[in-house]
Amino acid sequence: MYTPIQKYVLVALRMLIGWHILFEGFSKLLASNWSSLGFLRESKWILSGFSHWIISHPGVLQAVDFLNTWGLIAIGLGLILGLFTRIAAISGAILLFTYYLNNPPLIGLEYSAPTEGSYLVVSKTLIEALALVLLAAFPSGLFAGLDLLVNRFLKRNNKMEE
């Protein structure tokens, strides 16, 4: 159904994005003073009200920091290992799109920190989110990943039950 080059490219894309997301999660985990406070404080678009509500509740901010860090790690591992790939890709796309909706590169929005890869409406975050949607549409975990083993196990159990 897919050519070998299509499979290789999809698996490579999945693993590269997985590495990037896993690295981001581990960097937050290892930075003892990391918090999403600065990012949320900069929010100036659709989610700014929600972001400022999070900031105003220290317990909620702490939960968001925890979920963000461990969510990135879980998504990154899922993509790299090809385990629950579709769930990891969709979760990653939602998370990245949430980042984008907080701080998009739109005309008239100024941020105190310099942004990386912002080209008017498009940013690397938006591109990576769309790439994750693409990965969710293809079974790349079945080409090379633990999803292949999970799928075989489930098929074998279904045959035993019949």
Q: What do you see in this structure?
A:
The protein is an all-alpha fold. The chain is 72% helix and 2% strand. The chain has helices at 4-30, 37-41, 48-55, 58-81, 85-102, 124-137, 140-143, 146-161; strands at 118-119, 122-123. The longest helix has 27 residues, at 4-30.
Topology:
Blueprint: H1 4-30, H2 37-41, H3 48-55, H4 58-81, H5 85-102, E1 118-119, E2 122-123, H6 124-137, H7 140-143, H8 146-161
Antiparallel strand pairs: 1-2
Helix pairs in contact: 1-4, 1-6, 4-5, 5-6
Could you write a compact summary of the structure shown?
The protein has 162 residues and is an all-alpha fold. The protein has helices spanning 4-30, 37-41, 48-55, 58-81, 85-102, 124-137, 140-143, 146-161, and strands spanning 118-119, 122-123. Helix 1 packs antiparallel against helix 4 and helix 5 packs antiparallel against helix 6 (124-137).
Q: Count up the helices.
A: 8
Content-based structural category: mainly alpha
Give the end-to-end Cα distance, rounded to a whole number of Å: 28 Å
Please tell me what the overall shape is: globular
Q: Please, what is the average pLDDT?
A: 88
CA radius of gyration is 18 Å
**Largest sheet: spatial strand order:** 1-2
Low-confidence blocks of residues: none
Let me know the number of strands.
2
Order of helices and strands: HHHHHEEHHH
**What portion of residues is helical?**
over 70%
Q: What summary fits the major beta sheet?
A: 2 strands, antiparallel
Number of domains: 1
